[in-house]
Amino acid sequence: MNVFRDSRPAAAAAPSARPTPPPSLRQRLTELRGPGIRPRALDARALAALAANPGCRRRALLDGAGVDKGALAQALGSPAGHGQSRFALARGNSFEARVKADGGAELLRLLHARLPSGTPAPEEGEVAAPDLAAAGPEGRAARTALALREATAAGGWTLLDHPLLAVEVAGSPAYVEPDAVVVRPDGVWTVVEIKSFPMIDGAADAAKVGAAARQAAVYVHGLEGVAAQVTAHGERPARVGDRVLLVCPQDFSNLPTAAAVDIRKQLATTRRQLARLTRVDEIAAALPPDTTFDLHLADDGRTATRPADELAAAVETVDAAYAPECLAACELAFHCRGRSRERGAVETLGRGVRGELGSLRTLDEVLAAAAERTADAAAAPADAPGHGAGPEHPAAPERAPEAPGAAPDDTDPALAALRRAARLRAEALGTAGPPVPVPRTAPGAEDPVCR
Amino acid sequence: MSLIETLARMEAAAAGAARPLTTVRHRHLSDRPLVCVPLTTAGEAGAPLGALVGTDRERPLLLTVAQPRDRDLRFAFLAELADAVLPYLDGFADTVGHEERKETDPESGKKVTVQAELCADAPQLIVPSTAGVAYMRLLGRSTRFRRTAEQDPEAPYPAPPHVPLLGRWLTHLGERARVPGSCLLLSMTELLTRHWATGQSALEDQHLGALLAWIDPPEGLSGRAAAERAESARGEDGMLHCPPAGPATDPAFDNALLAPAMARYDADVPGAAEELRELIGGQLRPTWDAVWRGYDLLRALPPGAHVVDRWKRDRWSYTAHRDRVRAGEPPQPKRDDAVTAARKLASRETAQAQLDAQEALDDPLVMAGRRLAGEAFAGEVTAVEESFSEGPRPMPRPLVTLRTADTPLLTDGARLHRPLPDGKAQSAVFVAYEDGAAGSLTVRLTGGMGRGKVPAPGSVPEPGETVCWTLFEHAPRGGPQLPEPEDTPWTHGGPPAAGPEGDAPDPMTPEDFL
Asked: How many domains does chain B have?
């Protein structure tokens, strides 16, 4: 679950200022954040995580408003375990610097080798590297768009180091920052993602590559908006490559190697999920009017003075869609998990669990439904004839007489399967005797697992 | 996750403690396993930070690397690790028995029976988590191509002796761990999750501390509270009470304690090396104890009947690798050739099918899951009717009618299997559902009754007996033979090149790149 640990945050360098949504919404989001609190920038990793769970209104709103979820979780008393090791950060930075050294000569050589386009490899000094520095994220995004347009019009090789792209998320714009974008002479823009996990014998960890691909898909999505404008207004068409270049250290060294990663699938997912995100203004409008996530920070700017239960009540005003996957991606996950467990939601055991349980939503409901049948089975002989005619026949007519007093929902196939499972489990545990008692090596020890 | 497991997890969540998923232990546990708890440096691929190794739970050997960016220190660590692990691995090589094995005679091409050596026991390496298994594989890959001064006097930066051999063994154990049911290299989290269902998700079960907290909650705490505490409770110094089981470290530990201590070591502050040793040991020890705790819990379960059979395959695997090392074969290639890869896949598929069948036969609780899935059914025999096969020599083919509450997914003429008391399987075919009586069906026995005109005693179930038929075979066999690697067809790249390029050692550069 430390998938994201050893790569550097994409927007680390981005100033945490935000663009300008419509005044009324902006006003509302400021209120939610608390007066005088600067909004946090949304990076591509957060976006990818948000897109992975588009049903979570809580995350959409908090991210949309730029609330510091880490600080919020801390104030709620369930701090996240997320963090980055300084070693990983240093390694990531030094590796990126090495890849981009000498005007990105090595990077372009890898790009040319892995994504051949028919154009000859760039000669030394032939690669343009425009300066993208500008004031504020809007300025940088505009500067990036201009540089992309000029590079496409010029028809040469251009390397954009840390460009800034705008992506619309739930109705409000967010800025994302790829490691690099390369413009080829044929007008194709390629996203370059530099990661510090190794590629050993040409293969990298699948989970990490997947995360990198989802992140790159956000960049490609952001670039496509710019490309459409450039194509509409420029003399030469621009196209965003649907294969990105993933640059990683080779084997156990610090030397770069690269692979082209096809991100069409991730791109389609990102587009669909971003489109599905409920608009932030709609979520904000549904809140009670005086809701705010302001932590009432003390003068040191770090200590929250607002009572945790008051904050928790504010957080509760907007629904979350907790699943165990959140633990790796969201700072609030421990808080949401605690709430979800208190409610006994079946999703706490995994997203897939709900599919088998039909209309049952909580553990208590499931266990009660399962127990009904077990009680029946205890009253009747365990091997009472069931209906043998093949798999689930929810409306099997011969079923009614054998389960007298069964609730009408007994025809629910999910319920029938659940009861059968409960009966089989109880029967197997019964024949095998009670579960083997667990021995204790250190009775009375505070906690044998940990110090 | 099957419905029966979901239900077990819900029971566990409601009860506040884990619930059994099995009634027996389905994995072999050695009397003297070697436990290894590795830690790695964040962000680096082949830079170990430390490890606790040993077979004695009271006296583990602590190995640490004070500065992972120093090649000499890394090599020293690997040499020490090899010194700790190789004697254990070699310790099983010389106690051998003999087994008969069919082999193809190279001259006549006939199958002949030969006597082959089989080691009486094999080593077992236990690591805390699946990430630990992957890390062992990674260490194997990073060391098996290294050259020692003895192998190649010209080699720049020669590796200490034994290190390449350690890499070959770790690679072998790592490859073997991909075979379902194998027990040469095990992860404690996988072992525990196979046998117990906790009240949390499979994702959260990857945390060894939390997993053990559910299975064996400390007095006065529910499994849930103990697991949440193990996951995230931090002391006043901001450090986790229960450090991660590795190989990744806790970032807070890296930033607050490890990095400053390393800086002191780099600045030659006296005592810095000892301080680092203590720090790393402090992160490792709780996990070490947790692994042994899990070992005790598992040892308390009675082993399943087929566990010994599977362990014998592990012994064959160990013996075969011992022979390859003794024969001086080169290290395992970076990439398998087409035939080897296909063989590995086929053997893993067979092992998976065998494991599934054997676990179900050994354990009524696992069989319950198969029955729920419609892959088996159990019931009481209500009638047995004598019947014979047609043909010149009629053989007994009795019809057995039984009543079951299960809902098997049967098609006409489906083959069925049932274990007989002597361990063999009896085959049968499904005939029909009985009209009139729900849940009643008839099968025709087709084997396991001996060669006589009368079925062997005890081979035909009596009315009133409870029997369990499965739709899956009890000893599934693999697919057809594959050609030898040198006969690889051109469709699969042809025979592999004589000197596989993958065997070249990783280039060593004067600059230490880590």
From this structure: 2
Question: What does the DSSP assignment read for A101-113?
Answer: HHHHHHHHHHHHH
Interface residue B280 vs chain A (CB under 8 A): no
Question: Which residues on A lie below 8 Å from B226 (Cβ)?
Answer: 447, 449
Give the best residue of B5, B7, B133 to mutate against chain A (max A CB count within 10 A). B7
From chain A, pick out residues whose CB is under 8 angstroms from the CB of B365. Answer: 425, 428-429, 432
Beta strands in B306-438 (DSSP E): 376-385, 399-404, 415-419, 425-433
Q: Give the structural domain span for B387.
A: 363-470
Same domain, A139 and A103: yes
Is A5 within 8 Å of B206 when comparing Cβ atoms? no
- Expressed as residue numbers, the domain containing A245 is 88-272
The predicted structure's pLDDT at residue A373: 54
Q: What is the number of other CB atoms lying within 10 angstroms of the CB of residue B390?
A: 7
Contact A388 B439 (CB under 8 A): yes
Peptide bond into B247 cis (omega under 30): yes
Q: How far apart are CA A136 and CA A362, in angstroms?
A: 48
Confidence band, pLDDT 50/70/90 cuts, at residue B498? low
Inter-chain CB proximity B4 and A431 less than 8 Å: no
Phi-psi region of B391 (alpha: psi -120 to 50; beta: other; left: phi over 0): left
Same domain, B203 and B144: yes
Residue among A96, A408, A201 at smallest CA distance from B43: A96
Nearest CA to CA, how far is A78 from chain B (Å)? 9
- Pair A214, A197 in one domain: yes
Tell me the pLDDT tens digit for each residue of A400-445: 333 334 444 557 788 888 888 998 999 888 865 444 444 444 333 4
Mean pLDDT confidence for B431-443: 81
Q: How many domains does chain A have?
A: 3
Nearest to A226 by CA among A281, A157, A173, A170: A173
The answer on B279 and B399 residing in a single domain is no
Q: Is A397 on the interface with B (CB under 8 A)?
A: no
- Considering the domain architecture, whether residues A325 and A362 belong to the same structural domain is answered as no
- B438 to chain A nearest CA, in Å? 5
From A223, A245, A272, the end of a domain falls on A272
Q: Are residues B316 and B371 in the same domain?
A: no
Query: Inter-chain contact B3–A417, Cβ cutoff 8 Å?
Result: yes
Shared domain for A217 and A100, answered yes or no, is yes
Assigned token pair, B366: 């696992």
The SS3 assignment for A257 reads strand
Residue A259 lies in a domain: yes
Per the CB < 8 Å rule, is A440 touching B216?
A: yes
Distance of CA B507 to the CA centre of its chain: 33
Q: State the average pLDDT over residues A204-219.
A: 91
Q: Quick one: A142 and A281 in the same domain?
A: no
A206 touches chain B (CB under 8 A): no
164-193 in chain A: CB under 8 A from chain B: none
Interface test with B, best of A424, A436, A451 (most B CBs within 10 A): A424
The string of pLDDT tens digits covering residues B206-240 is: 999 999 999 999 888 898 999 998 988 888 888 88
Are B242 and B288 in contact by the 8 Å Cβ rule? The answer is: no
A196, A205, A449, A451, best to mutate vs chain B, most B CBs in 10 Å: A449
CB < 8 Å from A in window 478-507 of B:
502, 506-507
Q: What is the pLDDT of residue A397?
A: 38
Tell whether B323 and B369 lie within a shared domain: no
Q: Which of B470, B488, B504 is the last residue of a domain?
A: B470
Is B19 or A352 the better-scoring residue by pLDDT?
Answer: B19
B512 CB neighbour count, 10 Å cutoff: 14
Taking only residues 10 to 69 of chain A, the set having a beta carbon closer than 8 angstroms to any beta carbon of chain B reads none
DSSP class of A307: -
Tell me if chain A has a CB within 8 Å of the CB of B404.
yes
